[in-house]
Design brief:
The complex is a heterodimer of chains A (586) and B (208).
Chain A lengths: L6 H8 L5 H8 L3 H10 L2 E4 L7 H7 L5 E5 L19 H10 L5 E5 L5 H10 L5 E5 L2 E4 H10 L5 E5 L2 E3 L18 E3 L9 H9 L6 E3 L6 H10 L5 E3 L9 H12 L6 E3 L21 E3 L7 H8 L7 E5 L3 H11 L5 E5 L14 H10 L5 E6 L4 H10 L5 E6 L14 H10 L5 E3 L6 H10 L5 E5 L5 H10 L5 E5 L6 H5 L9 E5 L5 H10 L3 E6 L16 E6 L12 E2 L16
Parallel strand pairs in A: 1-2, 2-3, 3-4, 4-6, 5-7, 6-8, 8-9, 9-10, 10-11, 11-12, 12-13, 13-14, 14-15, 15-16, 16-17, 17-18, 18-19, 19-20
Antiparallel strand pairs in A: 20-22, 21-22, 21-23
Helix pairs in contact in A: 1-3, 4-5, 5-6, 6-7, 8-9, 9-10, 11-12, 12-13, 13-14, 14-15, 15-16, 16-17
Chain B lengths: L24 H6 L49 H11 L3 E6 L6 E4 L6 H12 L8 H12 L8 E7 L4 E3 L5 H7 E8 H4 L2 H12 L1
Parallel strand pairs in B: 1-5
Antiparallel strand pairs in B: 1-2, 3-4, 3-5
Helix pairs in contact in B: 3-4
């Protein structure tokens, strides 16, 4: 038996370990390692805000400087989680304000945060540096003004795809003249126009500003003026990239872009007029990330830009790029790692088919580093999936959305089982998978058998029976998050593999055939899980036990039942007297 | 006439169908829907989305209401943020373009084109794989733009529905006026277009 390491030495060693996954492993070695680790952890990540109580986290990590929290389940992005479900930031902010006043950074995703909360953050954390809100809601521009006005050392303020009640553009003017520390500002999701002169002055006095993402209300002229003041930017989100074409404006804009020699990432480009696109040509060769997914321009215009972006690693674009445009990407963007192609027609109606499976096949063949794919497409084939898996065994994230539910291989009319089999067999490092199209239980047998490292799996309109769930829960060893909608399985697989649920972060099921009775059984069997029945139509107790419920959200938790459940969310804690039903438990 | 569909999902359902639009009789004859899935929908208990298969053109005299398309909550999985941004952009001038004999519709933004020539080139490219194998179709369209004559039955002629619901020949009015008034475009076989020209002329004259 060796001598125990003095804690000072252990602390020093641990200071080199950043990854929380590693730190979590360190914590399990023994009590003293657990203790030393927890006292030194600075960046804390909580993947489900209801999995643990704020007090527990605050107590365990006294030196916490950064907290990341995620609230609503992923399917909330697609309106599947009713308003008022939960995910409130307040209980966390309240505790941290008292116990961890040295907190510097708060990052929230899919949470509800109020102005009151924001004011409390501004007032309580004297060293506050960074606020990042992603897909959050519940606040107004007044709350943002409070942050701007009060946080003297603010470096990062990012609002990404939030739903903000916009009371006007005044919030920007609350940044004091003395604030010169800004590194990143993102207000792209706000509607109101901010005062350009205030923004110009803010940019001018922020020598460390590296990332600036403007909202749509900022004009081309405004953009040009800001670029002149911040040629050191590495990340730019333009405002509205459109105006009546004027050669003088064009030349000024081109010049301003030409001065931005460090620009690596470009986004925004709403309403872009093709005539102004060439103003970007000078920055294209340096770009590693390009988000054209809001740019409604035609393929030839897109190609004009993309053929110059030979260092591109990340490309987000709409299907307006067509197969032909993706050929250009395949030829020129050899360093591509991530590709996302979004539908220009978000509804099921009248989708154009100029983008087919061929586009993705072409890119997969030529771009050797391609490892992350999100692709919306009207049709697909098994052959294409097989080809993709053969050329790109290094894929880590594969999300295919065949827009038509139940769409088979459009040539052979077969289900896409064999295609996805190739993907999971061939891409051994696959971490995230979303499937679509016509799929039978067989597809899930393949996924269960081969997708050993997949952590997150998204499924919709697929499968035939409980077998599909049986395969997934018994096979996918690395599975942490499973979200399923509109699939025809019932109770039996879920109950049979109930224990698996304790090894996962969460399971979402909606519009399937799981019954209220099964939910009760699960709740009884597995007290370390919260089994939430989310049903807006009928309180589950009002109906027979074997009737299916609308939505179920199951997650492991140390915090017990949550105290902020709305009416339409039921857990067993709401009626603890309810006994276990007579369902046979195998 | 309106058609209301309600999908019965387990638990009372979270999706409802949209109402079929009030389509005019003429439109029914030209409306080609996207035909992707020839298979009958697998019949699941409690029925999930089921879309009617509309691969054929409805007969001219049909009084059958056009098939309704069901809208599914949260599908395709596009974030509401993105949907909102896109719908704000799309208010503009998107029109549907169909071509007789082609299996799908396209949607184009008229504001992306500067002239009839520009539009004509784009349409030719879009539908080039479906024009007659002797390639007359594509040329037929461009010729039409330049020479303004009705082609014989083997050629294609672009027509459009204007704000008043009338079908006109593309090319008769100044480009800007066309962009303002065009609601949808149908590239029809020349034989069907013969009745159109005189009306277009009258209309133009009555506007002057």
């Amino acid at each position: 038996m060796g001598l125990p390491l003095p804690s000072k030495v252990l602390e020093h060693i641990l200071s080199f370990i950043d990854s929380n996954e590693d730190r979590n492993s360190v914590s399990l070695v023994c009590k003293s390692w657990f203790d030393t680790e927890r006292r030194t952890r600075k960046r804390v990540f909580v993947g489900n805000c209801y999995s643990v109580s704020p007090v527990t986290v605050s107590r365990r990590f006294p030196k916490m400087r950064s907290l990341t929290l995620k609230g609503k389940p992923h399917f909330a992005d697609y309106n599947l989680v009713p308003d008022g479900w939960g995910g409130y930031a307040w209980p966390w902010i309240e505790v941290l304000a008292k116990k961890n006043p040295l907190l510097e950074e708060i990052r929230l995703k899919r949470m509800v945060i109020t102005d009151e909360c924001l004011e409390m953050i501004a007032a309580s954390f004297k060293e506050f540096k960074a606020l990042v809100l992603v897909s959050c809601e519940g606040f107004t521009t007044d709350g943002i003004a409070a942050i701007a006005a009060t946080c003297r050392n603010l470096e990062v303020l990012e609002l990404r795809e939030c739903i903000v009640e916009d009371l006007g553009g005044d919030w920007l003017s609350y940044f004091p003249e003395s604030l010169t520390s800004l590194v990143s500002l993102d207000f792209s999701c706000l509607d109101s126009e901010v005062k350009l002169s205030d923004l110009e002055r803010l940019v001018s006095r922020s020598p460390n500003l590296k990332s600036l993402k403007l909202n749509r209300a900022v004009t081309l002229e405004g953009l040009e003026s800001l670029l002149r003041r911040a040629p050191q930017l590495t990340d730019l989100g333009t405002g509205s990239f459109s105006a009546e074409f004027e050669p003088e404006m064009f030349s000024k804009l081109s010049k301003a872009f030409a001065e931005c020699k460090q620009l690596k990432s470009l986004s925004g480009l709403w309403d872009v007029i093709p005539e102004y696109l060439p103003a970007l040509y000078s920055v294209c060769p340096g770009l590693t990330s390009l988000n054209l997914s809001y740019a409604t321009v035609r393929m030839p215009d897109l190609v004009g830009i993309l053929r110059r972006c030979w260092k591109l690693q990340k490309l987000w674009v709409m299907d307006l790029i067509e197969d032909k445009g993706l050929q250009t990407v395949a030829m020129r963007c050899k360093d591509l790692r991530e590709l996302r192609v979004f539908p220009s027609e978000p509804d099921l109606d009248d989708v154009s088919v100029a983008l087919t499976e061929e586009g993705l096949v072409t890119v997969s063949r030529s771009c050797r580093k391609l490892e992350s794919i999100l692709y919306f497409c009207v049709q697909f084939t098994n052959a294409a999936l097989v080809t993709i898996s053969r050329y790109r065994p290094n894929i880590k994230c594969f999300r295919l959305c065949v827009i038509e539910p139940f769409a088979p291989d459009h040539i052979t009319r077969e289900p896409l089982d064999e295609g996805f089999r190739a993907i999971v067999e061939g891409c051994k490092d696959l971490r995230r998978l979303s499937v679509s199209g016509l799929l039978t239980d067989k597809a899930f047998e393949y996924i269960g058998k081969h997708a050993k490292k997949v952590r997150m799996l998204s499924i919709a309109f697929a499968g035939d029976s409980d077998l599909m769930l049986h395969h997934l829960l018994s096979g996918c060893e690395g599975l942490k998050k499973l979200e399923i909608r509109d699939c025809p399985f019932g109770d039996s697989a879920l109950l049979e593999h109930a224990a698996k649920l304790e090894t996962m972060r969460s399971l979402w099921m909606s519009s399937c055939f799981v019954s209220f009775g099964a939910c009760k059984v699960l709740s009884q069997k597995l007290p370390k899980l919260n089994v939430e029945v989310i049903d807006e139509m009928y309180p589950p107790e009002s109906r027979p036990e074997n009737s299916p419920v609308e939505r179920i959200y199951i997650y492991r938790t140390l915090a017990g039942p949550r105290l902020d459940m709305p009416e339409f969310v039921w857990t067993i804690h709401k009626n603890p007297e309810v006994g276990v039903s007579n369902l046979a438990i195998k | 006439m309106e058609l209301n569909l309600c999908l019965g999902l387990p638990g009372g359902g979270e999706t409802t169908a949209t109402v079929a639009g009030n389509k005019r009789g003429y439109s029914e004859t030209v409306d080609l829907k996207l035909n992707l899935n020839n298979e009958p929908e697998t019949n699941k208990e409690g029925s999930l989305v089921s879309k009617e298969n509309t691969s054929s053109i409805c007969p001219k005299d049909s009084t059958k209401p056009p098939p309704a398309k069901a809208q599914v909550v949260g599908w395709p999985p596009v974030r509401s943020y993105r949907k909102n941004v896109m719908s704000a952009t799309a208010e503009a001038t998107f029109v549907k373009v169909s071509m007789d004999g082609a299996p799908y519709l396209r949607k184009i933004d008229l504001k992306m084109y500067k002239s009839y020539n520009d539009l004509s080139n784009a349409l030719t490219t879009m539908f080039s794989s479906f024009t007659m194998s002797n390639n007359k179709g594509g040329e037929g369209m461009i010729d039409f733009m330049k020479e303004r004559k009705i082609m014989d039955g083997s050629e294609y002629v672009p027509s459009y529905e204007d704000k008043d619901g009338d079908w006109m020949l593309v090319g008769d009015v100044p480009w800007e006026m066309f962009v303002e008034s065009c609601k949808r475009i149908r590239i029809m076989k020349g034989s069907e277009a013969i009745g159109l020209a005189p009306r277009a002329m009258e209309k133009c004259e009555s506007r002057v």
